[in-house]
UniProtKB/TrEMBL annotation:
Signal peptide: 1-19
Keywords assigned: Signal
Domain Glyoxal oxidase N-terminal positions: 17-287
Keyword Membrane assigned: no
Positions of the Galactose oxidase-like Early set domain: 296-399
Record's protein name: Galactose oxidase
Pfam families on file: Glyoxal_oxid_N, GO-like_E_set
Lineage per the UniProt record: Eukaryota, Viridiplantae, Streptophyta, Embryophyta, Tracheophyta
PANTHER family: OXIDASE, PUTATIVE, EXPRESSED-RELATED, SECRETED PROTEIN-RELATED
Length: 400
């Protein structure tokens, strides 16, 4: 029995290496792609899906090493999976193992996935939740990997982002240019619901051992709703290179925890250009500055809260200066980040019914929980009250 258990665990580990995971509406997970794995499977396994299911799109879009590592996967609002690999994307009905739609290749045709690692987010979902849009930023030109590996030439990373409304009947990529080239950047949805942070990575080369140069020290915020041409804003530069195997996640207090960097096979702390770095630091977006403290709400409701789909709930908060028409409540699924992609990341802007001033001068906001398991798979989320663009600390919410 023990031996058998080990065998199963062993096989599963091999199958899962460098795959992308996505939580599904029924609470299970789908595991897509990975090292020489042009397929997907489910966890936990059900009798209907004991083995892997073939996914030819992944072999059609494989990388120069015959792999397809960490494709960008987003659960669309119609329940299908948006899967982006290199320069192409499809909508997959994972239950029927059928491609429902093939999207146009991204303009320019440059690869965006490992080792040309760009990153991607599903932009915040807004009531009435009829549209979903994907953003892919950065990456490296096709020749970058071979040039860095075989010739020691580090080609500048891509400067472009592509944006695609995947719910449109005939969508097309809309391309925009970042202020800086970036490969191996991490993309995070900030709790304001209006900002995408792009942080970490390099200005030239690709993912892999010793294959990148020019650390991208300067984070940038992208504002999807700002007028075209004024969406990017450079942030304060960091001083630590965060190259291959660095990571970034949103914390409950609104900061971004940034850590790691190791572009070597071993831990090399000296005698190398970019030493292994095990440090952690936090990036504080402008909304955390002291000058915003009067606008910053504080949720008084005790954490965690239990939510039911499509049911109203209320949050009690205090704040110095409120604009009751400028209050929003945003729910963020905490992501798992590796190799520049934050899996499961999604942000829902919730439907607010009203904001009431209480006799003691605090406030109550009545909110509708996400209407469906497709929009918000069951589990734990961070919930933020945002006032005039300034988010509170989040509290935990459980929905099932
Ligand atoms: C997408 O990438 C493949 C493989 O590198 C390449 O052959 C193809 O031309 C690219 N597509 C476009 C539209 O440029
Ligand atoms: C190698 O890099 C040099 C520049 O450093 C470039 O001129 C040359 O074309 C590259 N070689 C190949 C085979 O691409
Ligand atoms: C990195 O560390 C490994 C293991 O200690 C060592 O063999 C290797 O020479 C080091 N590399 C460099 C460039 O110092």
């Amino acid at each position: 029995m023990v031996v058998k258990f080990y065998l199963i665990m062993g096989l599963q580990l091999i199958t899962c290496r460098y795959a992308t995971n996505q939580i599904l509406p029924d609470g299970s997970a789908v595991i897509i792609g990975g090292r020489r794995q042009f397929n997907y499977e489910f966890y936990p396994k059900s009798t209907a899906t004991l083995s892997t299911l073939p996914f030819r799109f992944l072999s059609d879009t494989k990388d120069p090493n015959e792999n397809n590592l960490y494709p960008f996967v987003h659960l669309n609002i119609d329940g299908n999976l948006f899967v982006f690999s290199n320069n192409r994307s499809v909508l997959l009905d994972y239950k029927k193992n059928r491609i429902m739609r093939t999207f146009p290749p991204m303009v320019g045709g440059e690869p965006r996935n490992y080792p040309s690692s760009g990153s991607s987010v599903l932009l915040p979902l807004k009531p009435p939740y009829t549209e979903a849009e994907v953003l892919v930023c950065g990456g490296a030109p096709f020749a970058s990997y071979a040039q860095a590996k075989n010739n020691g030439t580090f080609i500048p990373a891509l400067t472009t982002c592509g944006r695609l409304k995947i719910t449109d009947t005939s969508p097309s990529w809309s391309m925009e240019t970042m202020p800086n080239p970036r490969v191996m950047g991490d993309m995070l949805l900030l709790p304001t619901g209006k900002d995408v942070l792009i942080i970490n990575g390099a200005g030239s080369g690709t993912a892999g051992w010793e294959l990148a140069q020019d650390p991208a020290y300067t984070p940038v915020i992208y504002r999807p709703e700002a007028p075209a041409g004024s969406r990017f804003e450079l942030q304060t530069s960091a001083t630590t290179p965060r190259l291959y195997h660095s990571s970034a996640i949103l914390l409950r207090d609104g900061r971004i925890l940034v850590g790691g960097s190791n572009p070597h096979i071993y831990y090399n702390f000296s005698n190398v250009q970019y030493p292994t770095d095990l440090s952690l630091e936090a990036f504080s977006p402008e909304y955390l500055s002291a000058s915003n403290s009067n606008l910053r709400p504080k949720i008084v409701t005790a954490s965690p809260i239990e939510l039911s789909y499509d049911k109203q709930f209320s949050l009690h908060f205090s704040v110095g200066l409120v604009d009751t028409t400028g209050v929003s409540v945003n729910m963020v699924l905490p992501a798992f980040c590796t190799h520049s992609f934050s899996m499961n990341q999604r942000l829902l802007i919730l439907q607010i019914s009203k904001v009431t001033t209480l006799p003691d001068g605090t406030y109550e906001v009545a909110v509708v929980a996400p209407p469906s398991v497709v929009l918000a798979p069951p589990g734990y989320y961070m919930v933020f009250v945002v006032n005039s663009g300034i988010p509170s600390e989040g509290i935990w919410a459980h929905i099932q």
